[in-house]
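thread from #wetlab-drylab

HS: before we spend reagent money on co-crystallization trials with adenosine-5'-diphosphate, can we at least see a predicted complex? here's what I'd submit
DV: go for it
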Amino acid sequence: MLTKMPLRLRVALFTALGLVMAGLLATAFFGVAAVHLIPHGVHAAHRSISTATTAEPYIKLSLVTAGGLIIMLAVGAGASYLIAVHALKPVAALAESIDAMGDRALFGRVHVSIVNDEVSRLGRSFNTMMGRLEQSFDHQRLFALNAAHELKTPLAAIITNLEVLQLGDGATVQEYAATVDNVLSDAYRLNGLVRDLLNLHKELDPDRCEEIDVAAMFNEIIALLKGMAAVKNVHIEQRLSGVRIYGDRELIYRVFFNLVENAVKYNKPRGRVDIQGCGDTSQSIVHISDTGMGIAEQDLTQIFEPFYRVEPSRSRELGGSGLGLAIAKSIVERHRGHISMESVLGRGSVVTVALPDLNRHLTIDRLS
Ligand code: ADP
């Protein structure tokens, strides 16, 4: 019931209760003092006076104390109510300015007074929270815009191809075949994009985690990318024997595939890709280095952002969506690991993936 009461009334009530306690203590104190002092004084002076006369000072004292108590209570409660209303004024002002923001200024900030008290701290915390919310909202908006843009391009190409076919009178079998090829390759691109978008936030399922032989996984990846590497004459080599990782095979495969694909895609003709690794009981580390074009320092800080491309046209030409590194980061972090990239423009890059012993972490989580 108390929590439903306005704060100013609660403050007044608690102050009144405090005053009652103080008043009762004062009464008890005066009572004890009277018992000890008055009877002796009265007894000594008038030994013959009756008990009725002796009780009179007690009654008077009790009436005065009770009256004083009531006045003290009323004045104290009223005063504490006024003080509470005054003290809570800045809180009310803060609530008013939050209400006044309305829908138009969704992430508005409140005015914070220079006095360093609890209310200004509350205002500052509110503004910090609003800042974080605004940033996250902007991120989501940008992400949705970029995703829509990426999906729009192959979709528009599919529509144009089919419309041209529909308009052209008596298209040849070869023209039909060429259109089907184009439409199919755009549909594959769309499919890849949707898969990438799903992978970006796919939950890690502990039941799907298993021990992975990393060398065997890289052999599979290298075999798949052999054709792409051959076109550029890029040599891929791995030295990983004995490195094991505990995780979701499908997701970990996606991380390493994206990284080796990039190392080949952004390499120079006759370049190299070297994959090395090591591991102990606490973590496994894999380095993927290439002798490619490298990345400038100012781009390195944003390279793991979704849809970020150093050279948008070249990346798109090579079939990139700008999601490969963002997906890799998100999956590695879901495995409680860390991914980083070092690069020298024109010389090449090294991506390092460090993954802890997830099995141990999951066991600790289950036990706690
Ligand atoms: P994309 O699908 O476009 O390759 P990524 O997220 O994998 O997207 O990479 C983002 C950008 O980072 C790429 O567009 C490319 O410019 C750059 N990049 C990624 N890996 C490398 C690398 N090994 N060497 C040089 N640039 C790279």
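DV: The mean pLDDT is 85.
HS: ok that's useful, forwarding to the group
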